[in-house]
Design a protein that fits this description.
Length: 199
């Protein structure tokens, strides 16, 4: 008797649970991709909006959790949470730390930045591409919520290309502009001048 082959799905997803927060009431679902677990945080029935607000937020433990001011990640995340709580929408918390070089290598890159390299130079010196993120899970979330039109909260043109690659129409790109500080001016300059961010 031949054994039946079983195929492991590329993505597993959790049930949907409530996530009350200081910004308002959200729902939350986890998408598991291999060993990585990404989050979808959203307002109830947001997918019924013709063109809901969506942010693809790349994980930044140092900024999002510990309040590092070497970057603008914490401020962007919390600004997006406020906007989405007010208007309805979705945040995909994309867990690819340090542009997908991992936390250990991100801190090694920080060390090189302390010695004068910028973010791109540090990643390359460690043997990585300037940006190693992949976005398959984003397409899975869009499909899961039947999203065909969105208002995208981003400064990053690469994320515009990602969304359009999933045949989702961007009806508006909403910038998330954060005031610089002395610790992140160089970081933001590299984003603008070398990565094309709209800052």
């Amino acid at each position: 008797m031949a054994l039946m082959k079983t195929t492991t799905p590329l993505f597993e997803k959790s049930s949907i649970a409530n996530l009350p927060s200081k910004y308002g009431h959200f729902k939350i679902r986890v998408y598991k991709e291999g060993i990585q677990e990404h989050l979808a945080i959203f307002t109830e029935n947001f997918e019924l909006q013709e063109s809901p607000l969506v942010r693809i937020h790349s994980e930044c433990l140092t900024g999002d959790t510990f309040g590092s001011i070497k970057c603008d990640c914490n401020n962007q995340l919390h600004k997006a949470l406020k906007l989405i709580a007010q208007e309805g929408g979705l945040i995909i918390y994309h867990r690819q730390e340090g542009r997908n070089i991992g936390l250990l290598n991100k801190i090694n890159a920080y060390c090189l930045q302390d010695q004068g390299r910028n973010t791109i130079e540090a990643n390359v010196e460690l043997g990585f591409a300037p940006d190693q993120r992949t976005y398959d899970v984003v397409g899975e979330v869009f499909k899961d919520f039947n999203l065909t039109k969105i208002r995208l909260l981003t400064n990053n043109p690469a994320k515009v290309n990602v969304v359009e690659g999933f045949n989702v129409e961007i009806t508006e790109r909403v910038p998330v502009i954060i005031d610089p500080n002395p610790h992140n001016e160089g970081y933001l300059r590299v984003k603008k001048e070398q990565m094309g961010h709209d800052l």
